[in-house]
Amino acid sequence: MAAQCFAMLGASQKPHPPSKAKPVLYYFNVRTGGGVIEDPEGQVYSDLQAMRVAVTAKVRDMIAEGDQKGEDLRSWRIKIMDRANQPVLTMMFSEALDPKAGWLG
Prior knowledge:
Blueprint: H1 5-10, E1 24-32, E2 35-37, E3 43-45, H2 48-68, E4 77-81, E5 87-92
Antiparallel strand pairs: 1-2, 1-3, 1-4, 4-5
């Protein structure tokens, strides 16, 4: 499952809507039960909200896929970094399933 992590996070399901903001490159580092998987390429999003929505959907998909394989990924954590390797947001995978968690602002 960990090997497929970046393939799922990097694959956009639909184009990001146009925005007046300058696109931003984000890196998605995932802490699993066995260590950290660092994102070597990152993904560009039109703004912070677009990134949050896309990442939440992708994390939900990863959890569902893990469930189908008998792997519980809810304790995994994703740390989103900017181009300067500064933390932007951190989210437990379990938060993606909780609409009250405030992850989507």
